[in-house]
Each structure stands twice: as structure tokens, then as C-alpha cells.
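STRUCTURE REQUEST FORM
Protein name: UNC93-like protein MFSD11
Source organism: Oxyruncus cristatus
Requested output: C-alpha cells
Priority: standard
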Amino acid sequence: MSSEGKKLFNIIILGVSFMFIFTAFQTCGNIAQTVITNLNNTDFHGSGYTSMSIIYGVLSASNLISPSVVAIVGPQFCMVVSGIFYSLYIAVFIQPTTWAFYTASVFIGIAAAVLWTAQGNCLTVNSDENTIGRNSGVFWALLQFSLFFGNLYIYFAWRGKTHISESDRRTVFIALTVISLVGTVLFFLIRKQEDTKAPGDEDSTNEIPGESSSARNKMMRAVAAFKKSITLSFTKEMMLLSVTTAYTGLELTFFSGVYGTCIGAVNRFGSEEKSLIGLSGIFIGVGEILGGGIFGLLSKNSRFGRNPVVMLGILVHFVAFYLIFFNMPNDAPIAPMEGTDQVAYMIPSKEVAMLCSFLLGLGDSCFNTQLLSILGFLYSEDSAPAFAIFKFVQSICAAVAYFYSNYFLLQWQLLIMVVVGFFGTITFFTVEWEAAAAQAARGSDYSSI
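Status: completed
Returned output:
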């Protein structure tokens, strides 16, 4: 197999592995609050929102050290170990206890920071400036198939049910745990690149053979990776992109946790309210896959760079937020186990709710494919620190959003996303224009990115 073929193979395996793991985890996140609501009349007294807030809070802090961990251990082993912790978190739901639930939330936060930093490193070292757009799209499309399969099962398994029994819960989470473990094992198929730079390496070609594996050399690389993360955090480009990244954290919280809970709380949807959570996840996945395919795989045909895709993303999200505001009761995110009988500005429509799910997924893919692409392009030599900063900002905003989701009515959550999304789009445009100018100055064809 040629070098280019091996790199594409690695990207596909990376995407498929993440697809399995996040088929389990995203389905778990989508139904967690609904499942927990059905548990809270027992000895279990946890909150899905609080768990996710812990996960993303720990994730954000852990991103300060994740480049150093990847530098010492290597991206492949980091992803394997992280996948195991994802599986353990999902397994907690088989027989949930409050202490195990929150403890697992802390550990998966650490694992997620390492996993996504290693993913960014793996994506970048298997790409160049001509293939980073394509590879970002391939990875994102494969990853988002995770929303399709797990939620399809939830839709059919929970159809017609207004209460989730203990047997239903165990069956679902045993299956999800096995699926997560399959994705973890697939990481072993990724083939190492001989010319791969470890995070924090300044010039791997000057190393003396045999020294790269020494403890001293690994520690130097870890320290270099940490210093690089701090330095990159205060660059103009990274600070501007952080506003865009912050928006992706807020809307990630909304579509992956809050919106499904809203749908499941609307009593006017009748006996379908619980199964509609799964159907919503499917439509989110369709939007994600379509966006990843079109804006990633066809990126080489774009003459205008990344800005039109991000503009489409924010417009699609604004339409979705407007429709959700009119369709969903204001108290849906914080409704009790009995649900809500309130009505917004129209009779709740299942069709409008599913359309909004699709639009949320499509808009999210617009932002994330372009952020992955521009980070891989701007920081090809410092991929692990750059992606660690990306996940740090995204996850800390997701943690904040999950925290206020326990208290804020729907209208205020939508308003926050509109404001941050508007400014995040402007800052992305600024970085993209500067990147295009720099590329043109080097005499390269920017449309090939």
C-alpha cells in the first residue's frame, strides 16, 4: 500500500473507531436524563445534566496536560485506554449508583481530553495541506454515523413506552457497552507513520536513533508540548477561533442533551414522546453525515475557502432556534418526570421537531468540519497542542451550558447560543481571511485546502 493509501486507511479506521465509541456514548448522553428521571424514585439521585457538566469541566482542565500525555505515551495507546474508560462510564448505567455515576463522570472527562487530543494529532499527521479538508470531512462523516445507529435502536425499542423499565435500561446499556469496546479494539488497526512528529517535537529529524524512546527525551517532549499549548493559547488566531469554538460547545450541549430531553418531556406528543428522542438523534445524525460528506469530501472544489460553509452553518442554526422557540414549551428542559402540558406559540409538531433536529446536525457539521480543517492547516506542526486548546474551550463552554441547563428556561438557552454564534462566525471569518492572504502570499492555491 502506498504512503497516501496508508494515511487514508488510518483516517477511515480512526473514523470507524470513533463511530462505534460514540454510537454508544452519544446515545447514552441523549437518553441519560430521560433514563435518570425514571430512576429518581429509587435510591439513585443523580442528574444527567450535572454528570455532563462534570465531564466537560474535567475535560477542559485535563486539556492542559493531554498534549504531554500524548507526547509520552503516543496517540494510539492513548486512544485505546480512553476508549476503555468510555466503556466503563456507559456500563455504570447497567446498575447505576450515584457515587459510581459521578466518579465515572470524572474519569471519562480525563479520558475524553486525551482521546480528542490524540485524535487531532492522528488526523493531522495523516494529512497535508491538500488533504486536510477531505480527511476532516471523511472523519466527521464516519463519526456522525454514531448518531444514526444507536438512536435508530432507541426509536424502535422505546416506541409506545411512557416509562423506561429496569429490563429496558439494562438491555440498552449492555449493548452500548459492547459497541464501545468494539470501537476501542479497532484503534489497534491504525498503522504508525514513520515520519510522524510527536507533539511538542521541534525537529524530529535531528534525533539520534534510539534516544526517542528514552524517559528523558519523552519528558522533554511532554514539557515542550505543555509550553507550546500555553504559547498557542495567546496567539491572535487561536483567541479568535476560541469564540467560534465556544459556540460549538454551547450548541453541542443543546443538541446532544437538552433538545432530546425537551422532546421527551412534551406530553402532547403522546405515547411517542420517548421514542421520538431516538428519532431526533437519527435526524441530527443525518444532518451531520450530510454536512460532513458535502463540506468535507467536496472541499477541494471550493473556490471560496471555509467561510461560506460557516455562514451556512450559522444561518441553518438560526432557523432551527427560531422554529424550536415556536414549537417547544419554554419549561421543557427542566420539566419533571410527569412532563409538561404547556404549549409555546404553536401546537407542538413532531414534524417541525424532527426538521429542527436535522438542521441542528447540519449546522454543527458546518462548524466542526471547518474548525478541524483550519486548525490542521494553521497548526500542522503543533497539532496536539492546537487540538487540546480547541477541546479545552469547547468542553468548558459545554460544561457551563450543561450546568445552566438545570435552571434556564428554553428561551434563555436559545438566546445565549444566538449571541455567541453571531460573534463566533465573525471571528472565524477574520481568521479565514488572514489565512487565505498568507496562503496567497506563499503562492499556493488556497482553493485546494
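Reviewer notes: Residues 3-39 form the longest helix (37 residues). Residues 19 and 145 are 6 Å apart (CA to CA).
Form closed.
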